[in-house]
UniProtKB/TrEMBL annotation, chain A:
Compartmental location: Cell membrane
CDD domains: TM_PBP1_transp_TpRbsC_like (cd06580)
Organism this protein belongs to: Candidatus Segetimicrobium genomatis
Protein name: ABC transporter permease
A cellular-component GO term for this protein: plasma membrane
Residue stretches spanning the membrane: 20-40, 61-85, 105-134, 146-165, 185-210, 240-263, 269-285, 292-312, 318-337
Classification lineage: Bacteria, Bacillati, Candidatus Sysuimicrobiota, Candidatus Sysuimicrobiia, Candidatus Sysuimicrobiales
Length: 357, 505
């Protein structure tokens, strides 16, 4: 018999989750070894590439910013039980809206920057609003509609960068004219742009919204039990519209950060799938806003490490594979955690009632 | 019936099964003999269903052994159990709506292995149906059948698999009295073939009518055995452990009408009208009980009054003002409280803590919220008040309510709904699934509340409950109210007749 629990519960939680991460790395190592790479060396290179120098850390944080913002957006929607898997498209829609302003208007920095942020958020919100309206008034499943809209947004970028926004000096490379300097995000440190501040403010606001406002209570109730929400007289349709829009706005901000903070133009492939990785980030973070920030950094490190080891002949896909493994194993560990908790509850019950002795 | 001494078909020895927070079976011995109807009698939560689920291979016991004809056996799954000849008919049927009766009966069975010969199987099903008087058309699809017919399909399924031990879990809860008679006839025929029928129930009269032997369970233990000749009073005593407290009901002079429905029509979930032209009047301080077989429009009626369903016709007035166009929330604010049937799915949020559940109704108004800001201190204070006033036993206010017992969940829900002394309380099956003690508490709360002036509309499937607490009893059948009588002027038999739609005089 296992007997009384020797560890405090939080330690078990950390150990089991950490164990899941380790297991993901171990399985990844098997794949690396099987494809003729030295897993130890590959992981070391990834580590160095992600966190081994000030430059590496800077790059990791830059990649973490869009993951934070999209991750927060997805976490908000998931909290209400809305399966928004269109953060990628909403990011792109935000980038397109901001690019339109940056490329067509000539404004002073003090007007341009707030304009970019607002327009980017509005772009993402509008893109998410489409499936929200379809869901609310026609009953279209948001999983399908948000997914499909991703591809429309991505193709729209192609249309713009090959068409009216094309950079005449780039021959036919798929990118737009560069943004004017007024439309560049200020940097905080090295190349880290103010998107980081936006992401941290967003996490603060989201955590406050969910835990300290009655709107947050409403969102959590709708997510936990729709019949109970109706019973309490909550306006579910209005919340679907608002929360989807807010979720899209956060993803839209990520898009602004990429075009104004990193590449200073819009181009094909502005996101290496941040909006999809965001789903994993939100889930691994168990929809907790502060955990999203932390997990986004870890996943950005993985991504960055993946880019770096390409130069050593290891496919970057290994980073994506490890991400997927982390999700798989963390979800599996949830099951393990439940069993541990159940067993503990059982042994406490039996001890209290002294059965079978 | 006299029975020659024979070897038991199955013997359970020292069965122990625990769930988090509950010891469901605490060392149970039970022998089941061929040719008997063995009734397992006990309150909700006595451990009957758990014990039978162990015998049917659904749960594995923590301790104890199961012997089939003297051989020790481990049942790893329902499949193991049915191969040993144990078949269970659950309260919630396990049938595929879009398949036919014959297809459902064959589903999951080892024969035929490759080719389905539905025609010969259907013929076999028809033979079985005739043999046991379980009339049902093998070619009908499940969704076309009534609840009683679906139950027959489940029984036929087990007979088709040649079950020697047939377990019926609360089989009569969903049946009309006529259907119960038909079921009993079938059970007697099955018993006469040296099979055993295990009949789980907490209804004394039924158990006395059908059983050859009665085993009484209480708190996970066998507390007694009895013959069906035992008096209901003795059986009840064994089941409950102490005298059943009779809730004292004071009949108050009727007050002013507070809720009035006229010609109310309400659509059901599937479209057609579930409530047809219902008119009723509820007076201050009275308890109006609504009797009826489940699914005759009771839920739709309450939901329409609570504001969760918009009526298709008729009028609804509350304190002499029309409320038909008001939202759930507006009605709550005016003093209309509602304890829904689905405690954990609708009345409470299972994943939420006690504190969070305590404020489900008023989370967005003072003192719980001021402006947009949710005040946790105020929420905790409210939860504390409910927990203390209504004796909700919980380790802390931070516990998810799904981990509370049914009685504690109900007291929390009840407390939240009545804390503000509502004008009208709608309560649907408020004691379903509760043990005797919790049931008594709920009855007392209802009576105290009505004495304080609240008008209560109580829907229940327990006639005992309705007779014990109501001032008047209305009967619903097929969406209509087919009779309203003062409790003192109506007999159980009359209500029973009304419930089946056979209106007297």
């Amino acid at each position: 018999m296992a007997g009384a629990a020797p560890f405090p519960e939080w330690l078990e939680v950390v150990a089991i989750r950490g164990g899941a991460g380790m297991a993901a790395l171990a399985v990844g190592a098997i794949f690396l070894a099987a494809t003729g790479h030295d897993p130890w060396r590959a992981y070391r290179e990834m580590m160095i590439g992600a966190l081994g120098s000030p430059f590496a850390i800077e790059q990791t944080i830059i990649k973490a910013i869009p993951l934070m913002l999209t991750g927060l957006g997805v976490a908000l929607a998931f909290t209400m039980g809305l399966w928004n898997i269109g953060a990628e498209g909403q990011l792109v829609a935000g980038a397109l809206a901001a690019s339109w302003l940056a490329l067509t208007a000539s404004l002073p920095t003090l007007v341009m920057l707030p304009g970019l942020i607002l327009l980017g958020a509005a772009g993402g919100a509008a893109w998410a609003f489409i499936p929200a309206v379809l869901k609310t008034f026609v009953g279209v499943n948001e999983i399908i509609s948000t997914l499909m809209l991703n591809y429309i947004a991505l193709l729209w970028v192609d249309y713009m960068v090959f068409g009216s926004w094309a950079d005449p000096t780039a021959f036919s490379f798929p990118y737009s004219r560069p943004f004017p300097p007024q439309a560049h995000f200020p940097v905080l440190l090295g190349d880290i742009h103010i998107g980081l501040v936006l992401a941290l403010i967003a996490a603060l606001l989201l955590a406050g919204l969910l835990q300290r406002t009655h709107w947050g209570y409403e969102i959590r109730t709708i997510g936990a039990s729709l019949p109970a929400a109706r019973y309490a007289g909550m306006r579910v349709r209005r919340n679907v519209l608002l929360v989807m829009a807010a979720s899209g706005a956060l993803a839209g901000l990520a898009g602004v950060g990429e075009v104004s903070g990193v590449i200073h133009r819009i181009q094909q492939g502005i996101s290496p799938g941040y909006g999809f990785t965001a789903i994993i980030v939100a889930w691994v973070a168990r929809l907790n806003p502060w955990a999203v920030i932390l997990v986004a950094v870890l996943f950005a490190a993985l991504l960055n490490g993946g880019f770096v080891i390409q130069t050593a002949g290891v496919p970057a896909a290994i980073a994506y594979m490890i991400q997927a493994l982390v999700l798989f194993l963390v979800l599996a560990s949830e099951h393990l955690l439940r069993r541990v908790r159940r067993r503990r509850a059982l042994s406490q019950t039996r001890a209290a009632l002294q059965v079978g002795r | 019936m006299s029975r020659t001494v024979s070897d038991p078909l199955v013997r359970l020895q020292g069965i122990v099964k625990t769930f988090p927070g509950v010891v469901a079976n605490a060392g149970i011995d039970l022998a089941i003999f061929p040719g008997e109807v063995l009734a397992l009698l006990g309150e909700n939560g006595a451990g009957k269903s758990t014990l039978m689920s162990i015998l049917a291979g659904l749960y594995r016991p923590d301790e104890g052994t199961i012997l089939f004809g003297g051989e020790r056996v481990e049942l790893r799954s329902p499949r193991d159990a049915i191969h040993r000849g144990v078949g269970m008919v659950h309260q919630h049927f396990r049938l595929v709506d879009s398949l036919t009766v014959a297809e459902n009966i064959l589903l999951g069975w080892r024969e035929p292995r490759f080719l389905l010969d539905l025609r010969s199987s259907a013929a076999h099903v028809r033979r079985l149906a005739d043999q046991y008087g379980l009339e049902v058309d093998p070619a009908a699809r499940i969704w076309q059948l009534s609840v009683g017919e679906r139950q027959r399909v489940e029984i036929l399924k087990m007979l088709y698999r040649n079950a020697r031990v047939l377990i019926l879990d609360e089989p009569t809860a969903i049946l009309t009295p006529q259907e119960v008679e038909q079921l009993f006839r079938a059970v007697r025929r099955i018993r006469n073939e040296e099979r055993a029928v295990l009949f789980i129930s907490h209804k004394l009269d039924e158990v006395r009518a059908i059983a050859d032997r009665i085993v009484v369970l209480r708190a996970g233990r066998v507390v007694g055995q009895s013959s069906p000749q035992a008096s209901p009073r003795d059986l009840a005593q064994m089941m409950v452990g102490h005298d059943i407290p009779v809730a004292p009901k004071r009949h108050l002079p009727p007050g002013a009408p507070v809720l009035e429905a006229r010609g109310l029509d309400v659509h059901g979930d599937r479209g057609p009208l579930a409530v047809r032209g219902v008119s009723l009047q509820l007076r201050r301080g009275e308890i109006l009980g609504i009797a009826g077989v489940a699914g005759n429009g009771q839920r739709e009626l309450l939901e329409a009054i609570a504001g969760l369903r918009f009526p298709a016709g008729g009028s609804l007035s509350f304190n002499a003002t029309d409320i038909a166009s008001l939202t759930v929330r507006d009605r709550w604010v005016r003093g209309l409280a509602y304890i829904p049937e689905d405690r954990l799915g609708q009345g409470l949020v299972g994943a939420f803590t006690v504190t969070e559940n305590a404020v489900l109704r008023d989370y967005d108004r003072p003192p719980i919220s001021r402006g947009a800001i949710f005040n946790w201190t105020a929420a905790r204070e409210k939860a504390e008040t409910i927990v203390n006033a209504f004796h909700v036993h919980s380790a802390s206010l931070q516990v998810s309510v799904r981990h509370l017992s049914g009685g504690n969940q109900q007291r929390l829900l009840f407390g939240r709904e009545v804390l503000t002394a509502p004008v009208v309380l709608l309560a649907m099956h408020p004691t379903r699934g509760l043990d005797v003690e919790a049931t008594t508490t709920v009855h007392r709360l209802l009576i105290d509340l009505s004495a304080a002036g609240t008008a209560i509309l109580l829907v229940s499937e327990s006639l005992d409950e309705l007779l014990a607490v109501s001032d008047r009893i209305a009967v619903m059948h097929r969406g209509r109210i087919v009779g309203v009588h003062p409790t003192t002027e109506v007999s159980r038999a009359e209500i029973g007749l009304l419930m089946t739609g056979s209106a007297p005089s």
